[in-house]
Each structure stands twice: as structure tokens, then as C-alpha cells.
Amino acid sequence: RRTDIFTRGWWVSNHQLFAVHQVAERVEALGQFVMKTRRTLKGHGNKVLCMDWCKDKRRIVSSSQDGKVIVWDSFTTNKEHAVTMPCTWVMACAYAPSGCAIACGGLDNKCSVYPLTFEKNENMAAKKKSVAMHTNYLSACSFTNSDMQILTASGDGTCALWDVESGQLLQSFHGHGADVLCLDLAPSETGNTFVSGGCDKKAMVWDMRSGQCVQSFETHDSDINSVRYYPSGDAFASGSDDATCRLYDLRADREVAIYSKESIIFGASSVDFSLSGRLLFAGYNDYTINVWDVLKGSRVSILFGHENRVSTLRVSPDGTAFCSGSWDHTLRIWA
Amino acid sequence: MLAHRAPSCPLLKPIPPPALQIEALMMEMQSPDAGIKTQTQTVMVANIPHAVTGNDIMQWILQRLQITAEEALHLGDLFVKYGYIYPLQEPKNLTLRADGSLYRFQVSCTIYLAKKNIKRKGILEEYEKEHYNMLNQKINYKWDFVIMQAKEQYKAGKERKKEDRYALDCQERAYWLVNRTPIMYYQQAIMKTRVKSSVSLGGIVKYSEQFLSNDPILSGCLPSNPWISDDPEFWDLNAKLVEVPTRMRVERWAFNFSELIRDPKGRQNFQLFLKKEFSGENLGFWEACEDLKYGDQSKVKEKAEEIYKLFLAPGARRWINIDGKTMGITVKGLEHPHRYVLDAAQTHIYMLMKKDSYGRYLKSPIYKEMLAKAVVPQEGVKKSTGLFGRRHLRSSPSPIILRQQEEEAKAREAANTVDITQVMSKLDRRNQPQKEAPPK
Predict the structure, then answer these.
(1) Model pTM?
(2) Start-end of the WD repeats (chain A) (predicted)?
């Protein structure tokens, strides 16, 4: 049986199970798979670097290298708001849970919050709130469960939790040995944790209360560009410049899958799970999107369409589609 | 750091100390007389102080070390890769470009140590003292410069804005955490409990299988996937607090407690059930705790007090039933309230709802009725492309408008409540004079 997975000596003589594909042997294989671009969002004048979905399942915010941040109703492809940041390389953007504000930042080393309004002489820039201050570029940001708190990751090697209203630093997270490139908040109601990935090849899990690193994984061979929790919160996936994506089981405290192929030699920039966690969508620097069967370890589809690197990828809140952003200046909705 | 726990891998990875020769060279590069001339560079609209160009770095190395251009470029490239110098314009591209590309120096290990020494007036940790002395020996001839730089930075640091200082302190602490002895992480590793792989992986597989039918990309959705059919009816049927939810949605509430409590409609239905069991205050308390944890930092003290009065104080209107020990910890913590002060109580109540109420809820008439009433949409008609291609795409009200409407509705509700109490008190006043009329 032809498989596309690395087994890397996971089979131990006493047949302990360390890899997800071993446990998933009896799981039914996926059927035929067809996904197409359903919307193309044109409007950015330069590389799209980041995007995030609104909880209403159709609006999105996106940011680009030229400092533009745009809010779209991606269903109709209408642009609803736009702001130009005073810095270039807006590498991070996020939609607030209420749908009434966005956060963004990049080379300005800050994370700023913009309330969204429909005022006639809308001047979003004037209402901007400067929240986070790092000593190097902002690589990622995310609101927690409300509009009042933001979690940031930075090229200065730290992550931090901020109070939006006052700009106060609530907690900082130290441990990465180099730039932190990504973060994701755990979906659980009970735990208060998040995972981050960095240029030190490490993925680290943090306790938001104490600021402590509670788990750390170092199996990638290069920068980790993207981390995303499995929907149950018991695992997370990573995408790296080493051209692989990996799955880490948090309760077993180990890597349990590597998603790779000999033909994939460019780095994975962004990953996200489908609603059930069965599929992992990964955008790559070779302009493609690979769709992986998380349980079986095999690739189920490759999606062509973008004309430059895929830099960002997120599945919609209800799992009906995913959005990819690219250095080709466009965003695409796939379903 | 916890290394990958395969049988053959070492448990700990040794962390190499910073190369002292590189440190010394970095110091020289930044020195005001013999170093590279730095200046404030403008990148787009941002002013970046103390920046140097890649070409400057190349030239300096060439002159200083008298090596070939190829060697100089390679060395400079290594400095960037190891983080001693960082690029400003393409932050992820850790290479040295011998052109006008901008770079900046990372604050060096030596200066950190010297600063710390000054700040703490000679009190350093053991491993720090060792390192400090070693550095002193190796670059003794440059030591005055190091101390001067450290003093400058310390002074400047004191005058800096609070936020800047905070951020810089973070950077320093980060540096030291990375270079600390690994003993601490080893201890953490021993204390953590781990689950057997097969058990944990089994859970991951089970979750995927359970949610497969709910995964629109894999199993489709009814009446249709809006992105494919251009018909947003699926979203209308699954609106946040829709009158009648779909069957799939109500069935999901039975998968696990988290699915129920995360869905606003599910929570609403669960609250109805709890009220019947006279434990409605449990959910109310849990929601108040969430609001405390994720809300405005400035309102923490005020909210904690309100929650205490409403749910925890003896004789409180919505008193929650928690064990004596938890109550004790909570009350003690409330003397100095912070965002997580109610964690113990919140967890207790969450577990109570999950392990106790939830099971009964799923068997209750309230849930069963919801399930029976639930809608099963018909599969939608294939999309009609019409003469001009895509059907007209309906826009939806902005979340901004929706929030306004919600707030107006709440305000109206609050106003109505006030009216009722006013009416009641009017009635009371009319009755009273008859009772209190003194006997003639």
C-alpha cells in the first residue's frame, strides 16, 4: 500500500502506538475531493500578508505589505472599510469577536485596534488605539474571548497579553530563543493556554495565567511559520520552512504525524483544520495549497490558483470554506 | 526545553553559551570611534534610529579583519543568522545583503550583564557572575567601553517612557531565559503527567469521526453551501439566536458539554432547564466569571465585588453552592482581586454543570422538545446562473448595526422592567393610606 508518510522509526519493537495513522488504520478513507476558488478578492496593491474571519462567517479583514488593511464582505466581495497604516509590512491582523473592531500591526512594532464605524466622514485612523508595544516587528495578534484583550507575538522573541482599553501589559511570555512568528489560542472553555511557533524551530504551549511555558516541542528543522489547534484542543498542527507540517498531541506530549512529500520542497506558511479536524489545509511558498488527511497522513488534494506565495490561510468559523491570501495581491475563498 | 520524547533522543539539549569572540567584535562594531556610523533611517514613514546598511557592515568587516569579500559576506551573513544583527526590511530573510538594506544591532549579552550589574548594584546570580568574570577576562581591553555603554543605556532606560522600559525589560529577560541553565526545565518535565499515546490518539480520531457529518467541506450542508450555491439560507437557518435551530445543531449539543455551552442558543436552552432545577445561578456565575477574566482590566475590582455580592456572600440573591474549602480560597483571594481570582470557584461550578446537570438536561423534556421542534432543511435547488452569470448576492447587516440593535433591545427591556416596578409601587402607595389611617 503506497503511503506518503514518514515513519521515522516510530514503530517500536513492543508495538507501541506513537503515530496517528497507526491508530486510524480502520478509519474509512475519504472519497473524491473537489474544491474550487469560489471568490477572488482583488483590491490590495501589494502582497497580502495576513487575514482573519469575522464571527459572522462571511466578513474578513486582510492586511498587506503596502500598509493597507481592508475589511470585506467576502460573500459579495464588497469592501466595507479600509485604512492605511503608517507602516509597511502589516504582518498581523485580527477581527474582534464582536465584529465591531479590528487589530493590526507589523513593522511599527505595535498592535493597534481600530473600531469600525459607518460615520459619514469616516476617519478610522483618527479613532485608532495603540495597544501593544514590542521592541521588534509584530508577527501575529489575536483577540481573546472579548474585544478587551489582545494576545501578540513579536520578532523580539516574546508573546504578550494586553488590555485594549488602557494598553497595559497584562502578562508577557518569554522562552523563545528567536523571533516568534505565530500563535493560536486554545479553543477550550476550561484551560487558558495558547501555542506559539518561532524561528528557533520550537513550538511552545503557554499558561496565560502564570506566563509559564508548560510544554515545548522541537522537531522541525526550520522556522515554524504557523500553528493551529486541532478543534478539540488536544493537539495542534504546525507549518514550517522545512517544507513539512506536523501534528503534536498535547496529552501524550509528542509529535504524532509528519505531513510531507518529496515533491514539496518549499516552506509551509500557514495551516488550518477543517471543522471536524479531519483535513489540514496548508499554504506553501511554492504558490500551492495542499490538503492533508490528518488521520491517514496522506495528501488528498493539491490546489493551484495563486500566482505567488500563499502567505495566510484560515478556515471560516462554520467550516463552509477557507480563505487564502497571497503575495499575488489577492485573496481567494475555496469551497 | 522538553525534547521529543522518542526512546533514543536525549532528554535535554545543552544550550551553548554565546561566542565571546563574536561579542567582542560586535562591541567594536558599535563603538562610537572605531565602529560603523549609525544614523536614523527613514523606512516609508517610520523613523528607525541606529540603523546601518548591509554595505556598511561589509565594508567594516573587510577593513577590520583584512579578509576577502567572499569571507566578509559569509561572516556578516552568520551574524545575521545568529541574531547579532537583524534585518529591518525583510525580517524573515536572515541574510546579509551588501547593499542599502537596513540592519540594526541586537543588544549584546555583554551589555545586558553589565547593565544588570549596575542595576542590582553588584548582585548577580551565580551563573551570571561566572559569565561576567569570563567576559571581563576575554575583552578586558574593551571593558571601559562596555561599562560606559551599559551606564548610558541604564540612564536612558530610566528616562524612557514606562511602556518602552517595559518592552525593553521584556527583551532582556527573554534573552536571559534562553541562556539560563536547563535544570529548571528538567524539573518541570518530571512533574508533568502524560497520557499514553494510544489513548490520546484514540481521542483525536474519535473527535474527527464524531464531527465528520457536521463538516461542511467533507459532508456538505443543508440546504446548500452558500459559497457554492450563492444562497445564504444556510447562514439564516443557523443564526446566533434563531427562533428554531436546525436538527444538526441541536444534536451537536449532545456531543459534549463544551459544544452546548459554546453555542448561545444551546446555552439559552440549558439555562431554561437549570432554572427549572433551581440552579440557574450556576450558569449565571460562570458567565460572570468569563466576563471578569476577559473584560476591561480597569473594571476588575468593581466586577469582582459585584459578583461576590450577587453570588457568594451569605444570603446573596443568587447564591451558588460551592464547598467550604473553595469558598474559603475565593473569599481570601477577593481581598486582592485580579482577573483570575474566581478561577477555583468557576472551575468547581463548571464541573458541577458538566458532570451533573448536563446529563440530566439531555434526558429532559426541555431538550427533547427542542430536538423535536428542530428544523431539517431540504436540499437546495441547484444554483441558477441566469443571463448575466452569478445570481445577485445578498448582503447582510453589518455586525456594527446588529450590535446597535441588540443594545437598543436591551435598553427597551430594561425600560419596561422599570415601568412595571413603578406601577407596583404606585399600587402599594394607593393601598397604604387606608391601612395607616389613624382610628377616628
Answers:
(1) 0.73
(2) 41-73, 131-172, 173-216, 217-258, 270-302, 303-335
